[in-house]
Amino acid sequence: IPILNIYGFLNFSREVPDGKDVNRSFPGHPRGSVASRVAHRFMREIMPLVDYGIDFHTGGAARANHPQLRCVLGEDPATDALAAAFSAPFTLHARLRTGSLRATAHALGKPIIVYETGESLRFDEAGIEEAIAGTLRVLHYLGMGPAGPVPARPNIVCYRHRWLRARYAGLFRAHVALGDFVEEGQIYGSIADPYGGQSVRLESTASGYVIGLNYMPVVNQGDALLHLAMPA
User: Fold this and answer.
1) Three-state DSSP class for residue 159
2) CATH 3.40.630.10: which residues of the chain?
3) What is the pTM of this model?
């Protein structure tokens, strides 16, 4: 399925015209909201044909993701095998979210893994290549195609991950890049006032790999700035 949320695609938005999120509307309802109807039609016409799935996503507006796979690890051998076959740069243990396609498929015994890369409204060429290579490896694992490309780097499995949030409002500048490893106590960025009179250095409260980064220059208190993944 090239595009599930065609309404969001045409309007450059995650939401459909009624403001709801399709990926929080599963399993949907035939007489519900637009998002609920889209989800219901997918469940009625497509889900019965699915044995395994890969759900492709980008980061949110002005927030970019390093190529990563998300799934529940250690509970379902089929899901673990799909994740291992895909072999993304990072695999995150991510709990199921109510109303998501992944959670609804899980309830039906159909393993779906989620691949995240880049940010919305942007092509992330390296992340796209990772997605294609990982998909080919999964197809080979399932006996549906020839061997895919050998991963360029080892897969890093992370059972813990967290966002570091802004303690102050102002202009945010990151001093690290996606994929970097940050040590606890390391300066990962700064927040300054618009006049340049004050600047606060931001110290990481944990060690981990940068798998998500806020590119929005203006931030408020509590905004997510840096997503860290801690290796197992």
Assistant:
1) strand
2) 6-141
3) 0.95
